[in-house]
Design brief:
Layout (H helix, E strand, L loop, with lengths): L1 E2 L6 E8 L2 E8 H4 L1 E3 L4 E3 L2 E8 L3 E5 L6 H10 L1 E5 L3 H11 L3 E6 L12 H6 L6 E4 L3 H4 L2 H6 L3 E3 L11 H21 L9 H18 L16
Parallel strand pairs: 7-8, 7-9, 9-10, 10-11
Antiparallel strand pairs: 1-4, 2-3, 3-6, 4-5
Amino acid sequence: MVHICDHPIVFKIIIYLNNTSYEINLHTSALFCLDNKTNKTTYNFSIEKNMEVKQEVLVIGEILYAKKFYEELKGKYIIKVFDSTKKEFLVEATAKYENVAAILLANGADRFIDKFDNEVLDSLSPAINVIIVIGDASKLVDVKAATDNGVFVADTSLSSIKGSTKDELEKLELEVLNNLDFALITGVPKDPVNKIDEVSVIAADKAINYLNERGEIDLDVSDIQISLS
């Protein structure tokens, strides 16, 4: 085995999957190793599991029936509850909820914030990319404004709520909470009411612009494609 590189350098890549970060270390000494017998270059790398990173969720309104599963989600994610006024939300949205990844508009959310319109959506942190609604999203969220802000929106049909029994309402809340969990894992909720392609492009541009403005990154990602299969 011949080492062409005498001064190894480690390239570190961190990926996030299922609320856990994984650190991949690529060693240049391995990248430039040549096996004399096979005449092939060998590639060695190590993967280290880092500490669990919990995502943050902002909940507006109440979960009335599926409380057991809601408690389970509290152990999996950092749940923040907002129960004040729209005016206060606009003041503290970016700072207090800077790391929030998703918003759940639960039962009675309209009592606190009448509607997620342009004004509210523009005040959100760029980290937020999903709004899940119990009920009809069009009554609580300006879907076009959400799309323009790179935010996915998913809801439930109001017709399935009216006249439902307690068991049916619990099942409905479970479906919503499961969709929230799914969106936090995959980045996209099931059956969003806005178009996935449109939101994805805007969300990607928003993330890059945000990082560039903060001086944390300066790169051209036009020809970079990353996919998980």
